[in-house]
Specification:
The longest helix is centred in the middle third of the chain and has 22 residues. By secondary structure, this protein is mainly alpha-helical. The chain is 67% helix and 0% strand.
């Protein structure tokens, strides 16, 4: 924890008015944004595929976007959508 605090407060004057912003920027710089982006994309693709399989593509997209893998469980627990009626001739 001390190492994390040292990295977050590196080069920050804690008495300065903008110290919070500098600490926040330092913390955001330590987050692996690229990995988070790709994992989120994988979660969304799987959610859309599960939604397509259950007949609820939009629900699969939204739940996977909001909850990630937990959204997959939500989509799987939803009832299958009724098939649309056939088109008249």
């Amino acid at each position: 924890m001390d190492e994390l605090l040292a990295k977050a407060t590196q080069g920050v004057d804690m008495d300065a008015p903008g110290a919070f912003l500098h600490v926040l920027i330092n913390l955001m710089g330590m987050i692996p944004w690229t990995a988070l982006f790709w994992w989120n994309l994988v979660f969304i693709v799987v959610g859309v595929l599960l939604g397509w399989w259950r007949g609820r593509v939009l629900a699969g997209l939204v739940w996977a976007l909001v909850l990630g893998p937990i959204g997959w469980v939500v989509v799987l627990l939803m009832p299958r959508s009724a098939k649309p009626p056939p088109l008249p001739r």
